[in-house]
Amino acid sequence: MTGEPFPDLFAHLKVEALPSRRWVECASCIENKSLDNGDTDPQEWAVGHLRLHPDHARYRIVSQVGFRLDPTTAPDPVAPGATSRRPSAAF
């Protein structure tokens, strides 16, 4: 992916329209391989990784879209389930 990894999200720009990236990763060690270029078969990659690491038997395909919001211009209403527009300090 090129450009800003966390582009501003505005009312005229929807998350679905933003660039995304996909990869297959080992859930044990987080080693991963990009799926964006289309030349990686996730199952073949997982089998190869398992051969190198016999105790790594769990895998996942991850899709990620990054975006950011400006809290001073974020539109109302408050998102469903939220109690305020201010981000929570408790993580």
Explain what this protein looks like in three dimensions.
With 91 residues, the chain is an alpha+beta fold. The chain is 12% helix and 16% strand. It has one helix at 42-52, and strands spanning 21-26, 32-34, 59-64. The protein has a 3-stranded antiparallel β-sheet with strand order 2-1-3. It is elongated and about 50 Å long. The chain starts with 20 loop residues before the first strand and ends in a 27-residue tail after the last strand. The model has no long low-confidence stretch (mean pLDDT 82).
Radius of gyration: 18 Å
Number of strands: 3
Low-confidence stretches at least 5 residues in length (pLDDT < 50)?
A: none
What percentage of amino acids are in beta strands? 15-25%
- Give the spatial strand order of the biggest sheet: 2-1-3
Shape annotation: elongated
Number of separate helices: 1
Helix content range: 10-25%
On the 0 to 100 scale, the average pLDDT is: 82
> What profile does the largest beta sheet have?
3 strands, antiparallel
Structural class: alpha+beta
Question: Which sequence of SSEs, written as H and E, runs from N to C?
Answer: EEHE
Question: What is the rounded distance between the termini?
Answer: 29 Å
